[in-house]
UniProtKB/TrEMBL annotation:
Residues 3-143 form the Ketopantoate reductase N-terminal domain. This is 2-dehydropantoate 2-reductase. Residues 174-291 form the Ketopantoate reductase C-terminal domain. GO terms for biological process: coenzyme A biosynthetic process; pantothenate biosynthetic process. GO terms for cellular component: cytoplasm. The keyword Repeat does not apply. NCBIfam families: apbA_panE. It is an enzyme of class 1 (oxidoreductase). Gene3D superfamilies: N-(1-d-carboxylethyl)-l-norvaline Dehydrogenase, domain 2 (1.10.1040.10), NAD(P)-binding Rossmann-like Domain (3.40.50.720). Catalyzes the NADPH-dependent reduction of ketopantoate into pantoic acid. Catalyzes the NAD(P)H-dependent reduction of ketopantoate into pantoic acid. Pfam families: ApbA (PF02558), ApbA_C (PF08546).
Length: 300
């Protein structure tokens, strides 16, 4: 399969690198990373180890392929959708954090858009080198739920490429479950500059659990049957599997970059407000991260 990964940072480089063992992969990445991959290939270290030679470019315009995998930050989704629209793909898969990415892609693109979640831990250590800090899994499926041949084909391509992949008929549930995981782990580990295991330890475990339970409550009010217990089990098992990983939001804060707070805890607060539910822990976490972003002049 010809696969283009748009936004080859930590997770995108890991996913694209693993798939490059079996598929024809192009990474669309930042300049230094793209240049190093182009010249010397991509090395994957840590819990998975391999050296691959995907194509790499900084320019995502006018590209073609069977599959576009989108791993950009949620706030960059509208602009990457415009870029992808200049090329041609049979199918587009969002493997991003937060809610609303698939709708944003679908409104700008003619190709079918699949939803996906990924819980692999990944850190881009330096240009050309990504470390796998936790073996997770990938779930793909129709964004509104149900099954489709397109989702099956993508699932088979991912599995044959070496990524643990499930094709799910219940993507709305899976997306809320992943949101509950990220709502519990990301802001807490970012604000405390800790690894994911911090959400399993006192006193931060209480904050993470409260944020996760609030998310499950909002999901239920939104018509998705995610129990508090299911959400907590998901959050804690991802935290265990990626215990020594630095979450994507913690990596963003450490690097002084804008975070995905609006699409994670911020989304829970907004949807909770619309549905008449209080979400005090998510509100507090969102306020703290946004205040940090304002202090860094990353937002208004
Ligand atoms: O999605 C993640 C992230 O860091 O954004 C998890 C699964 C929490 C892995 O760290």
């Amino acid at each position: 399969m010809e696969i283009v990964v748009f936004g080859a940072g930590s997770l995108g480089s890991l996913v694209g690198g693993i798939l490059a063992g079996d598929h024809d992969v192009t990474l669309v990445a930042r300049r230094e990373h793209a240049q190093t991959v182009h010249e010397s290939g991509l090395r994957i270290d840590g819990e998975l180890e391999t050296q691959v030679t995907p194509a790499a470019t900084t320019d995502g315009r006018d590209l073609e392929g069977d599959l576009a995998v989108v791993t950009v930050k949620s706030f960059d989704t509208p602009s990457i959708a415009e870029t992808i629209a200049t090329g041609s793909f049979e199918v587009v898969l969002s493997l991003q954090n937060g809610m609303g990415n698939e709708e944003s892609l679908a409104s700008a693109l003619e190709s079918p858009v699949l939803a996906g979640t990924a819980t692999y831990g990944a850190i881009l250590r330096e240009p050309g080198l990504v470390e796998c800090t936790g073996i997770g899994d990938v779930v793909v499926g129709d964004r509104r739920g149900g099954t489709s041949n397109v989702a099956e084909t993508v699932g088979e391509a991912f599995s044959s490429g070496g990524l643990e992949t499930t094709v799910a008929a219940d993507m709305p549930y899976r997306l809320w479950e992943k949101l509950a995981v990220n709502a519990g782990i990301n802001a807490v580990t970012a604000l405390t500059e800790t690894e994911n295991r911090a959400v399993l330890e006192s006193p931060t475990d209480h904050i993470a659990r409260a944020a996760t339970k609030e998310t499950a409550r909002v999901a239920r009010a939104d018509g998705v049957d995610l129990s508090n217990r299911e959400a907590l089990v998901a959050m804690e098992s991802v935290a265990e599997a990626t215990a020594t990983n630095t979450s994507s939001m913690a990596q963003d804060l450490q690097a002084g970059r804008r975070t995905e707070i609006d699409a994670i805890n911020g989304y829970v607060v907004d949807r909770g407000d619309e549905l008449g539910l209080e979400t005090p822990t998510n509100r507090l976490l969102a306020a703290l991260v946004r205040t940090w972003e304002r202090g860094q002049e990353l937002r208004n």
